[in-house]
Amino acid sequence: MERAYQTPANPFEVSRLNEDTLILTHKIALFKQNVLEETMGKLRGFNFPLLIEHVRREAIYFLKTLKQIHLRVEHPVNDDIVDENVFFLKIMAEHSKFIAHLLDPSEELLINQARDFGKTFDLLVYQARNLDIGSPTHDLLQDQLTIYKGATLELRSFKEQATKLIETAQVRSVIDPKLASHVTREAAKFLSIIDRLETRLH
């Protein structure tokens, strides 16, 4: 992280940073894959296998994105709309399910809200995957992005509320405040990606 901030803004130095980061990220992805495999076997702990798979997919996504940036590859906007949204909508769905399972059973209201978000985003993942069938029109793509943005804005607000409750010990859970803050930032990241896709679409 410190090296990224200290790297001069010239192509050679940025390229070297990218190459080293690709190597490191590949190692991290392999490590997470190994942990996942061990979790399905002899390794025991308090992390859901889906959570480990979740963070492994995030590492693979970062690796893929960094490779595209490093090689200066830009896919057609229609393809990016499908790929980016399928990935992040699934991430949002899983965040909601993790929240529901990590809250204390007595927190029924928040648990039900989280479960409802999980179901909503599961449906949106299905819709996003269907965009890859045929040739979606410009208007259809824009409508879908608007739907995704609206749902993610609602989820981010829920995450922000939950984070404040967790940080001030107003809710019972086993969720670390740093984790709560992290998933809130990921919702914000997804919103920024939707904005970028909308700009490219126009």
Question: Your description of this structure?
Answer:
The structure is a single chain. This protein is mainly alpha-helical. It folds into two domains: 1-73; 76-202, Ferritin (Up-down Bundle). The protein is 79% helix and 0% strand. The chain has helices at residues 2-6, 11-39, 49-70, 77-102, 108-130, 138-167, 177-201. α4 runs antiparallel to α5 (108-130) and α4 (77-102) packs parallel to α6 (138-167). It is globular, with a radius of gyration of 19 Å. The chain starts with a helix and ends with a helix.
Tally of separate helices: 7
Query: Which strand-content bin applies to the residues?
Result: under 5%
Fold-level CATH name of the largest domain: Ferritin
Average residue-wise pLDDT:
92
Query: Helix- and strand-based class?
Result: mainly alpha
Radius of gyration: 19 Å
* Quaternary structure classification: single chain
Q: What's the name of the CATH homologous superfamily of the largest domain? A: Protein of unknown function DUF2935
**Strand segment tally:** 0
Share of helical residues = over 70%
Low-confidence stretches: none
Q: Kindly provide the name of the CATH class of the largest domain.
A: Mainly Alpha
Order of helices and strands: HHHHHHH
Query: Into how many domains do the coordinates divide?
Result: 2
Shape: globular
> What's the architecture of the largest domain in CATH terms?
Up-down Bundle
